[in-house]
User: What shape does this take?
Amino acid sequence: MKRIVLWILLVPLALVELYLCSAFLPMRWQLALSRIQSHDHSLITHPALEQEIEQVLRNNFALQLALEASLLLLLAGNTLLVIRVWKLLRRSQNAIS
Assistant: This one.
């Protein structure tokens, strides 16, 4: 039972890890990924939101630094959780063997 819960916890943590890592890809790659994942192609909500965010981040270095630092902290925390769950999973697997 404990192993099942650990696996159920590990899968979303790994997916969040991949999502957070994608934030550090070059912007051109991020835009390509968002086009692949996006299902709403309507221009009604805000047609140039991605470009405006990119422009604000380019013009305001402190904001870009704060955003990247917060992403890095989230990534580090998630990585520590993944490592901890993985070790618990391996420990419970070794106890069964």
